[in-house]
Amino acid sequence: MTAQHSQQPALLALEDGRTFPGVGFGAHGITTGEIVFNTSMTGYQEILTDPSYHRQIVTMTVPHVGNTGINAEDTESDKIWVAGFVVRALSPIISNWRAQRNLDGYLREQAIIGISEAPTRAIVRHIRERGAMRAALAHGEAARDPDALVEAARSSPDMSGWNLVDDVTCAESYPWTGRSNPDFYGEVAHTDAAPLIVAYDTGIKQNILRMLTDRGLRVLVVPASTSASEVMALAPAGVFLSNGPGDPAATTHMIDNVRGLLGKTPVFGICLGHQILALALGARTEKMRFGHRGGNQPVKNLLTGAVEISAHNHGFAVSADSELHGAEVTHINLNDGTIEGLRHTEMGAFSVQYHPEASPGPHDSLYLFDEFVARVTGAHQTKG
Amino acid sequence: MPKRTDIQTILIIGSGPIVIGQGCEFDYSGVQACKVLRAQGYRVVLVNSNPATIMTDTEFADATYIEPLTPEIVEQIIAAERPDALLPTVGGQTALNLAIALSDNGALARHGVELIGAKVESINLAEDRQLFKNAMIEIGLRCPISEVVGTIDAALDAADRIGYPVLVRPSFTLGGSGGGIAYTPDSLRTIAERGLKLSPVHEVLIEMSVLGWKEYELEVMRDAVGNFVVVCTIENLDPMGVHTGDSITVAPAQTLTDKELQRLRNASKKVIDRIGLATGGANVQFAVNPADGEVYVIEMNPRVSRSSALASKATGFPIAKIAALLAVGYHLDEIPNDITRVTPASFEPSLDYVVVKIPRWDFDKFPGADRTLGPQMKAIGEVMGIGRTFPEALQKAIRSLDIGMVGFGAKTVATNADLLHVPTAQRLFQVASALEAGMSADAIIAATAFDPWFVGQLSDMVQARQQALPDGSTLEALDADRLRMLKRYGYGDAHIARLLDVSEPTLRARRIALGVVPNFYRVDTCAAEFEAFTPYLYSTYDQEDESAPTDRKKVIILGGGPNRIGQGIEFDYCCVHACFALHEMGYETIMVNCNPETVSTDYDTADRLYFEPITAEDVLNIIDKEKPDGVLVQFGGQTPLNIARALADGGAVIWGTSVETIDLAEDRERFHALMTELEIPQPDGATVLTRETALAAADRIGYPVLVRPSYVLGGRDMAIVFDPAMLGAWLDKHAEQLGRPVLVDQFLDDAYEVDVDALCDGDRVTIGGIMEHIEEAGVHSGDSACVLPVYKISAYHVEIIREYTERIGLALGVRGLFNIQFAIKDEVVYVLEVNPRASRTVPFVGKATGVPLARYAAQIAAGRTLAEIGFIEEPRVDGFFVKEAVMPFHKFPGVDVQLGPEMRSTGEVMGHAASFGHAFAKAEIAASTLIPTGPDAGAVFISVNPNDRNAVSKIARDLHQMNFTLVATNGTAEFLRSIGLPVKTLRKVSEGSPNIVEAVRAGEISLIINTPRGGQAHQDGDLIRGTAQLYGVPIITTLSAAAAAVQAIKALGSKPMQVRSLQEHHGLA
Ligand SMILES: Nc1ncnc2c1ncn2[C@@H]1O[C@H](COP(=O)(O)OP(=O)(O)O)[C@@H](O)[C@H]1O
Ligand SMILES: Nc1ncnc2c1ncn2[C@@H]1O[C@H](COP(=O)(O)OP(=O)(O)O)[C@@H](O)[C@H]1O
Ligand SMILES: [Mg+2]
Ligand SMILES: [Mg+2]
């Protein structure tokens, strides 16, 4: 008997009344969140454990999921963050030399609900037409009552205006020392000066931290509540602003922190960190129709003209028409022209909307970490 | 950077004849390159020796040369056309090697031609395996250790150092020709000898084996400024040790985590940068250790390839087209993605489905060939199945193969761990039977070294089947849920019907009644993130249909499925023309095919493309969805013809020649009755069901007779038998045929054979071309060289042939193309067979006459008359056009090279010139038959059977007059002396030395004329032919061909070859 057809029913219900059936895996019960999709063909383990997916039900477009099981290395945090997981075909078996356990058990253990045999392409096309929206996912008895499930979706909170940073940030600061596996990232050039970097944790992916330490940086991770003065008291060589969930405009506290740091120390932001930096500079952000989530997005580096195939995971973006107050656009998305990178030379700050740390995704943009190292070690001369 | 304006004329080199390892995928890539470069305003000059290609149609280039692909000829073309640049990356290994030759001999420099798309240094670096490995190690990547050797002894020493088993890989050969795995010094000796012979640089690599590791291939693109994308990752089901061309492959890769996949991506990028691929597409192959993920680089091809064609069809990303644009200066981000329109080509396709490629082999045609699969490719063609899951895609691919296997596990085959251990064409089906028989997944994994994930999927498929249809299930009891589950696992109607012991139509009716019908999804490169504008569709049992059929008047054109011997590119050519013709007439054209190598499955050939198996089930599903005005079954060869009846019964409107006519032409008895009525002679014959009646019939008809099963293409299992003993042997070998009709025919001994292609609209017949075979009847029309116009047949017989052709076309009521083979013996013209469909020779006739027969046929099918089309006169041909067949024997050492009634050629070439001799010479050179240009090339060896002696005398005399030294075996030698010719006698091998085989080895022989007494596998004959084959000495097995060769030698002696473009020839330029 195989994974697919031994299971109880599961149902995905959207706030607009549309429902999609499947068979459940992972935990039983009901969960709600924003329904989104990710087009990466690999990397479900990294996606599951990425805090930026907090309160989101993630649909994978690649049909077979779970093939390589779950291993000890490829996590982005110490738990699963997605609110629910939607796949077309949960793998009946796992096969990979690093695999330790299967996806079903992993979700069950962490009380996360999954649905398999779901019409994922139909779901994606629906989101593409109607935009991301609230959804509810049930596994077991609750899956037999569509109306109640649609109700559950409708009564769940909306992503716009929702500050989720406090849910995901660390309780208190800690030094990070972990490195990446050289089998996969090779030997990277690093500084011996071991400058201190303070990394704001607004849901930080561990691969970002690994990319920083790989390059010889000393990293102290601090909670989002840490004030600018507290940070400056640590005399950091630079500050890093992490990725994270929710509406950037709602993270007023973080925006203030960054205002307090700009110009005092080099700042590098990724994803939510990029949005927060932009807001601190006085720009606006907006919710996108259904965002970018995947590992195949073409981003153009306007300084070099090079195209980077990059990993994305964001539902908000810096408004193209908003006043940037001295910051310049360094990267744009070639699919839809949205802003993907900013830098403010006087303030010594730069940021990207996408994920140079990849994980999952192509490694084309790792050079940004080297650039950060160059800035904090003073070795940096502005290009272009 | 925008496109280059400093170049105006670009020369494109095609890949030549279809051979194993280089199939019609290069017609697909060549056509894309030609189309897009002309659209960009460049003047395109094309050279290719293969007349069956779409790319060599005059509308695809400004100047089209169907000429031999040799440095000398191409330099003549360069001198005439003065191209500014040469694009060598869309014509396979052939084009790359030719480009290198033209650079090495200074031709490119002499004429100021720039190589675009690839640099000479990078080609050499990628193709020389040792240089390549050194480069890889330099950039910190690992490769299996190896040593290059030039002698057998050196090979043995190297193997001792490396340790057995070792891989033997010749440098610069196609599809690994001459490669192999040696487990012992003895096997190493044999393989190394062959490899050294086949390598143009007489080098082989002795390499450490990583048999059983996972094999991956990444299809990548790079532009001039270093932007890099991975278009597709392909995972081989068969692990390392089986050539990717012979492996079942799956995209996207299924068993790698993101970290492991990115490692391969990074490595590919490093490889490309190091090799210095200028711009365009390339593939990089990797071996991955399943135990610890260790990665070895296997090879890199700096050009578009078979797998890039597969990747293009698998993803919707047109690699060759984009490679051509990159070669003229565009950057990836400057090229739009046709399918989404809004996004650029600088991205990596995301697949929300699975594709499975399965190769198709034709071993039955090569008795004595080694059927195990290894590092050297043996497949003739391939199919691709698209499904939402691996099981669905795999089942569709199996159905597409057209080998009578209707699904995974549909037939029980002998199986056990030992059988499973050996890679063969049967292994997938042996796994199915093993699972059905309850063998454990672990045992299967241990035996096959398949990745456990795939075996898990396969056993899941079997379990699902057992769960949905436990023994004793009935159709009545089958409910919608269980049926839907089976369909989601890809099980075909035919398979399920068989399991329930009902007819396929019954099952289909029930399925539709239960509301279990497929939907059609789009291949869109982006997993639905953006809207797709290109209707490139596949069926799946999943929610929501995306096909959005139009209400235009529309026609479905059925393709031919996988290439195989007897049904190859020629039929795809006809399908593509049918699409063009009907599109011009204002119909929406809908292509259905499952062969990823083809032009017909390019998403911009037809208005809509369904990438689906050519089976009644799959086609009827499309018909139900599209509701076409008509369906065309005559263009794709026998495969669509075979389902015509089922489609008609299913309610399809078959256009053109009716299903009844098709049956009439193929039903032996009814056809014979018709010929008698029309007073057209046929060879005496009989249809028999038993051994007794067969022997009796043969006695009545008189030996030799020709025997074969009915309903075959390409002369399957056909044999000329000379006595009751041979007939008995044949019947034993084809015992399974007994009970089914077997045809016994009078064999017309050395008769001329003639092929006719003609059109009929029901009221009028117009002949397209009458071709005379060079070899006599008895050599399959597909293997025989032929010439247009006829050159030895009397006007009187040609008139009779015209007259018979008209009578037959009208009597059959053909509406479209038909093909007749005639044989002329003792002043009598016999009909051998009539094919009521497009034939193998249609493209050749098109090139020779400039008349698009296939287009006209499509127009007739759509209701036009020949008069309306304006084609009412047989076109005249000026000069001579010779078609020569290309045989795959060097891939199957040990197989008898003597030509016979069973077709075995994989491809064809064409030579044209004002004189027959030059045209034939060109055809032979194009087929890389090195006919000697003069006596200094070496002696001519003649050994003919007694009946041929008189006939050989003229040939021998001519050769003598051209100062060739003649050598012969005893009998023949005595005869030649008796007619006053000086001849040196060589012993038979059995008689010791000096013997002929030694002479061949010593390189003293430049041509062999050998006609053994038909049938009896003559010990010596085999040995002689085998050695000649190995040493590349041309060997001619029929006297008619020998006579033609003599004319060719004369011609070459008298005056050099001239080149001429088709446009010029047909006055289009
Ligand atoms: N070192 C090796 N050990 C085992 N199998 C190998 C090795 N190298 C190549 N092969 C097998 O041989 C096939 C052909 O080798 P490849 O280098 O790809 O030559 P080709 O140019 O013919 O594609 C590969 O697809 C792989 O399956
Ligand atoms: N009665 C015959 N006498 C001599 N040769 C024959 C005869 N019938 C067929 N052949 C030879 O066999 C070849 C294949 O036979 P054909 O009927 O054309 O089968 P297929 O359907 O494979 O083309 C022909 O091209 C011809 O050379
Ligand atoms: Mg290869
Ligand atoms: Mg024939």
Beta-strand segment tally of chain B = 38
Largest sheet, spatial ordering of strands of chain B: 14-13-10-11-12-15-16
Bound molecules: adenosine-5'-diphosphate, magnesium ion
If helices are DSSP runs of H or I spanning 4 or more residues, what is the number of helices of chain B?
37
Helix fraction of chain B, binned, reads: 25-40%
Largest sheet of chain B: 7 strands, antiparallel
User: Largest chain-chain contact?
Assistant: A-B, 63 and 64 residues
Regions with little confidence, pLDDT below 50 for 5+ residues of chain B:
none
**Head-to-tail CA distance between termini of chain B:** 33 Å
Counted by DSSP, the helix tally of chain A is 11
Strand order of the largest sheet of chain A: 10-12-11-13-14-19-18-17-15-16
- How big a fraction of the residues of chain B is strand? 15-25%
Largest sheet of chain A: 10 strands, mixed
Strand content of chain A: 25-35%
Which structural category do the helix and sheet elements of chain B fall into?
alpha/beta
What is the molecular shape of chain B? globular
Average pLDDT of chain B works out at 93
| Secondary-structure element order of chain A, N to C | EEEHEEEEHEHEHHEHEHEHEHEHEEEEEH
Alpha-carbon distance between the two ends of chain A:
61 Å
Mean pLDDT of chain A comes to: 95
Outline of the structure:
Chain A is 22% helix and 30% strand. Chain A is of the alpha/beta class and 384 residues long. Chain B has 1069 residues and is an alpha/beta fold.
